[in-house]
Amino acid sequence: MKEKVEITFLGAAGTVTGSKFLLSHAGTTILIDCGLFQGMKELRLMNWEPLPTDVHKIDAVLLTHGHLDHVGYLPRLHQQGFNGLIYGTGPTLAIAEIILEDSAKIQEEEASRANRDGYTKHDPALPFYSVEQAKQTIGLFREVPLDRWQSVGPHIQYRMMYNGHILGSAYIELQIKGKIFIFSGDVGRPNDPLLYDPKKPVEADYLFVESTYGDREHPKDDFEEVMGELIEQTLADRGVLVVPSFAVERLQALMFLLWTGQRGSKIPYIPIYVDSPMGNRVLEVFSRFLDWHKLSDKEFRHMFDHAHVITSYEQTWEVINKKGPKIVIAGSGMVTGGRVLTYLQQLIDDPSTRVLLVGYQAEGTRGRHLKEGTDSLKIYGKQVPVRAEIHAIDSLSAHGDQSDLLAWMSAISNPPEAVYLIHGEPQAQKVFAKKIEEQFGWPVHIPQLYETIRISV
Fold first, then answer.
1. CA distances to 74, 143, 152, 161, 271 from 85, in Å
2. Residue 255 CA, distance from chain mean position
């Protein structure tokens, strides 16, 4: 008699954030990723709702990587009754620990500021979770190696395979009753400056693949040319070039590219300030897991020493008040929080300021508003006029574009019985679905949020 595998899409369905995929079979239930919704207010409000499932029955969580939209809901899951273990690669768990603690700290600080300054409808405003709650969740972390089959329950095996998106990132291959289920996580790009190329799956009966850039190709921007021009303009104006950056991989890639560009005289010299407490901790993870990236320990140290790394909020204000041209790289990448808000609050109304957006900007985020040409930005409850020049470069994206994703799928030797598009906005998914059907002839389904599918095995 055929048994059923049930999969419910609890996030990243019709949207890029909130990755959560609940899989149940023969009495075992696992959650693949456990991320926060980000961007639009209606999405963010959904974070406050309990998951529409019996959380006590979840046996384990498998993490593809450590980004907030893949791990940020874990403390809430624990509060709702999950007491199983959380599995990921060594770098993924190290990064998830940093991100959860940093996220909790920011939430506590923002709740405190909102209560103090009175820009909240809640009495009192509360953090989504506390630092202590994050630490309790981190106690459930367990490391698993790459490429080795692991068991979760009597009927499910899985292994994690390098996929190059960020340090520690992996796609998850599950084997259930002889059927192969692939969850892509976020797929990286070939020829990344820091990371190795993603491994490609060779077999998949059911493929769950991200579609963030499924409708487009990344432009072939020349980073050194674009950055060189912006630096020359910043030097001429004696202004500030602010680069909001994701703390994981993007910040390190920027440091590497600026170091090599200035070392080779392809980019003009300008002081570089890196202001991201979370990014600083991630730099330590890079130094611990040298086998996961291309840099030698010596190269890593030279890159680190090339920039001024800010270690306190007091230094943040010293950098803001310091006269003369400079680059400031600060979290967060979509301008949703972090130190970059302090810089933009003080500098974005100055025409000599330039802002360079270097990654995906989810719908509803401040980064997306800037990219779309907004004339003001709400920061800490107040509207700040935008007089700075806004620039964007997409060639540094850590997500594969349409061609990269198709190439990643091309090594699959058997036609999957179904492909499910996740982690994408509707337009990108619609275009990507058509492309997959045209190129491979595979059936594609675009799931809705909270939809459940049942697969016979």
1. 11, 10, 10, 20, 44
2. 18
What pLDDT, on the 0 to 100 scale, is given for residue 2?
A: 82
pTM equals: 0.89
List the structure tokens of 217: 């190709």
- Strands (E) across 166-254 are located at 170-176, 179-183, 206-210, 240-244
Q: How confident is the model at residue 258 (pLDDT cuts 50, 70, 90)?
A: very high
Written as six digits, the tokens of 320 are 């803001």
Residue 251: helix, strand or coil by DSSP?
helix
Q: What's the CA dihedral at 122, 69, 219, 371 to 10 degrees?
A: 0
Across 26-83, the runs of DSSP E, i.e. the strands, are: 28-34, 60-62
**SS3 label, residue 177:** coil
- The answer to whether 375 touches 165, Cβ cutoff 8 Å, is no
Which residues, in sequence order, are bridge partners of residue 210? 422
pLDDT in tens, 341-350: 999 999 999 9
Could you tell me whether strands 353-357 and 308-309 are parallel, antiparallel, or unpaired per DSSP bridges? unpaired
C-alpha angle with apex 397: 309 to 249, nearest 5 degrees?
A: 35
Which domains occur in the chain, in start order? 4-216+399-456 (3.60.15.10), 223-392 (3.40.50.10890)
**CA gap 153, 156 in Å, rounded:** 6
Q: To 5 degrees, how large is the angle CA 253–CA 258–CA 260?
A: 95
Sign of dihedral through CA atoms 176, 22, 131, 42? positive
